[in-house]
Amino acid sequence: MFIFEQRFMETRHFLSQGRENKNGILGSNIVLRLNSTPYDITNLTFFNGDIGDGEWQKGEVGIGRQKRPFQLSLYKEPAEDYFGRFAVDETSFHQSCHYPDPSDNGCLISEFHCQLTKVCILTEKLCDLNDDCGENEDEAVGECLGYHFFTFEDSKWQEWFSQGKDGIDDDFDWTLWSGSTDILGTGPNFDHTTSSYAGHYMYLETSHPQQYNEKAWLVSYLIIAGPDCTITFYSHIYGTSIGSLTVLIRNESQSDTASILAVNTNGNFWVKQTLAPTLLPQKRPFNLIIEGKVGEKELGDIAIDDFAFSPDCRLYGQPDRNCTLEEHECSDGTCLPLKSRCNFVADCPNGDDSDEIGCVSQKCTFEGQDLCHWEIKANQQSLIHAPQTDTFTWKLLRGEDPVDNEEQLSFKPDVDHTHGNGSSYFVFTSASEGQYESAT
């Protein structure tokens, strides 16, 4: 996770003391943006006119996993009745702003050696839907066989969870969302899975008609936890009036509910939460409940994303796992050889397509800059640290996007094939950026 920290101050003067901005606060908004291309802009955070007159304030924001070069920019939203100055000082990147140095001498027993990037990471970071290696080796199928992942990018989460029953379990539902929440300065501006405004997450809508202390539940179906069952997910709790996020367990008869984790981290970034085996009932069916409560005011949203259940966690009534690490286990317990994975055929019985989940798609239109699980490399090397220019490589472009030189412009298509317009994506490479025998 990247954290951007800065210290800022503002002096201000208002012509009218009666006007409020979209936050319900007097003043003008300063927006910190992340630009991966001139056209792909993600709003990271907002600073408003209530930060303190002439006083330095500290602010920090999570940038998320960025796989492409990017820029940060500050944008001041215009306000007719507002005059003031905004200053920034002591900007810094910290907390995992780069990956560890590669190691050719192996790793400690408690560490995993990433095969492509050669870095060492703690084994507890394996299979948690976070790219800790740099090339996603820690999340690869071979390492994470038997895990159950839910990212809210599709409906798979509904196989394990459902919304609480309004008026019985809770008062309202969690909201499936993407991009920024409705009220500026609260909630996330991007999801954890993709670190972009297009990715999805669940959040607790705290504005009207919700009231103080009302709650929303996300309730799992009955789970059986073995001795090695571990559950991870990511939370984002941000705003000036936060309620609470609590993880509960409820017994099979629904007669007893207990809290096992109270999430207290408040900040504009995604934080990993881990439910260790010691927190979970052993060999007794239970419901896992994610409870969010509304704070005193509406300026505080709570969001969750990216659940990972280890192989020793299973839904009650499902057969025990009996497949080896060299096999793929279908939802009914059927074991398939790993060669059946990602062969464009759903080999599991009863319509189960789990052997094709996370694989390269048969059809890919590249819309929304989605590579459909393909990876772009040049000269057999990762492009994580490569510049955007002067490298012979495939790039996601649109017909309307600018190119680096006139020679490329004469060969780049003006429209894509899928929609026939200049605003849709295709992949493009130009020989003018390469040398003899360059490959991508």
Automatic annotation (TrEMBL):
Organism: Cherax quadricarinatus (Australian red claw crayfish)
InterPro entries the UniProt entry points to: ConA-like_dom_sf, LDL_receptor-like_sf, LDLR_class-A_CS, LDrepeatLR_classA_rpt, MAM_dom, MAM_domain-containing
SUPFAM superfamilies attached to this UniProt entry: Concanavalin A-like lectins/glucanases (SSF49899), LDL receptor-like module (SSF57424)
GO cellular component, one term: membrane
SMART domains: LDLa (SM00192), MAM (SM00137)
Keywords: Disulfide bond
Protein's recorded name: MAM domain-containing protein
The UniProt record lists the keyword Disulfide bond: yes
Pfam families xrefs: Ldl_recept_a, MAM
All copies of domain MAM, residue ranges: 151-315, 362-440
Cystine bridges: C323-C335, C330-C348
